[in-house]
Amino acid sequence: MHMLTRQRKELLIARLKRDGQIVAKSLSEELGLSEDTIRRDLRELAAEGLLQRVHGGALPLELPASPAMANFAQRQQLSSDAKPAIARAAAAMIAPGQVVFIDGGTTAVQLARALPPTLRCTVVTHSPSIAVELAEHPLIEVILIGGRLFKHSIVAMGPSALEAIAQIRTDIFFMGVCSLHPLQGISTGDYEEAGIKRAIAAASTKTVVLASPEKLDTASPFQIAPLERIGAIVVNAGVPASLLAPYRALGIEVALAP
Amino acid sequence: MHMLTRQRKELLIARLKRDGQIVAKSLSEELGLSEDTIRRDLRELAAEGLLQRVHGGALPLELPASPAMANFAQRQQLSSDAKPAIARAAAAMIAPGQVVFIDGGTTAVQLARALPPTLRCTVVTHSPSIAVELAEHPLIEVILIGGRLFKHSIVAMGPSALEAIAQIRTDIFFMGVCSLHPLQGISTGDYEEAGIKRAIAAASTKTVVLASPEKLDTASPFQIAPLERIGAIVVNAGVPASLLAPYRALGIEVALAP
DNA sequence: CGATATCATGCAATATCGTGCAACATCAAG
DNA sequence: CTTGATGTTGCACGATATTGCATGATATCG
């Protein structure tokens, strides 16, 4: 089979994205080509600024070591100031003794951190990160939802998670990272994740969306729920009122985080 | 699989950031390379001003000011190199494709870290810390057991945890912190924890005890299982043979961690 | 002070690299 | 159809990088 040069280069890029590394020798064997050809490709791709050439193969452009870590660190860096503010505003919504569900995601971790040490309540979560974070809290009881670990957002998923969620009723569901749009409602980029969030929302009296600024007025492929199902949105105070008007018009409470 | 040199250096940096230290000998064993190579890397990284070279390994440049990590780092400093050594020896017991249960505790976290990046297997755990740790591993599938979070050892407990455990069969159970005594068998200080560990052991073909040196030849109130149920014990190589004789006499495999 | 571990350096074996070049395919113009 | 230009691929070869080992120096610990 003859592979076009351009195709091969695209394959290299894809492979680099998937594996986080390219080893010239391995790929040459896999594709049945000489190492020279692969090296040539890598050199040219490096010249185009599409990857970073290193001895033995190639690496992605960015410096960070592990790809999973890189994503996470990146996301954590995004709007670093806004998230703690949102987290504090959300934490203030919890009344003593309530049972709340905290979603996965970096904003949610901030929320866990923002819970006052004097607050006695029960937190249900399918995020091991949240559980670890709250393990040091003196008063909060933590219920961990188990299941298959979805590595992208580091939360438990799958049938057993759904089953466990169905057995619990919570007062508030603090929903993490997802897209928010006046017409599309709440949506996310993973099909299964959408299903899980929908199940949690269904098991909760009230759903509160933690809306990092960059997720406002965007839509993703898989809808979690229409806007009517949302009880409140927590956003940063800097957001223009025009973006928020559609939600207020629907009677959704919009909490501004200072 | 050959790791690219550049990647290895990034790994060193990441490891240094995470553990706050690098021991050249340990890493050379973990990565299957000569100590010379690691030392060379450390020397070069030190020349680039990315770390501080010290006898035996390397340290970060400045004092890390992370308050959250302080607690954890403290615990890890105890018995500095014994636990990683035990963890590496235990990791070597896992065959590709196996399903293993990893317990909670600091030694178990070390085990999760010691799993080679090329190992493809399934890890079941009731410890959110382990789950978070393994979220970065590219190949390992993680099954998280849910339940009420027991804050002392940061693991899920309670009926739903027991129920989930009963539904899974694992090849090896790596049991963490507990007392080990020739007559009393394995025991621990918490009644419910003993029950959980017993259930996990019952669901596993083989039980391997990660025996931190200070837990050898001690007993706690609640027995988990008699010695006969143990398949192997992993201990540090420095432990006197007299302490290990009783277990060997029972036909229990004793793995010495170098 | 002696035993042991760790280190830096030099060196040899191997792997990888970049360049030049020839063989071949593809394509466009004649 | 022919011809020359262009692009692609594999190979040769000298240059460079990487790794492990040997060796003597230095540090650590009891």
Automatic annotation (TrEMBL), chains A, B:
Residues 5-60 form the HTH deoR-type domain. This is DeoR/GlpR family transcriptional regulator of sugar metabolism. Gene3D superfamilies: 3.40.50.1360, Winged helix-like DNA-binding domain superfamily/Winged helix DNA-binding domain. It comes from Duganella violaceipulchra. InterPro entries: Carb_Metab_HTH_regulators (IPR050313), DeoR-like_C (IPR014036), DeoR_HTH (IPR001034), NagB/RpiA_transferase-like (IPR037171), Tscrpt_reg_HTH_DeoR_CS (IPR018356), WH-like_DNA-bd_sf (IPR036388), WH_DNA-bd_sf (IPR036390). The keyword Transmembrane helix does not apply. SMART domains: DeoRC (SM01134), HTH_DEOR (SM00420). Keywords: DNA-binding, Repressor, Transcription, Transcription regulation.
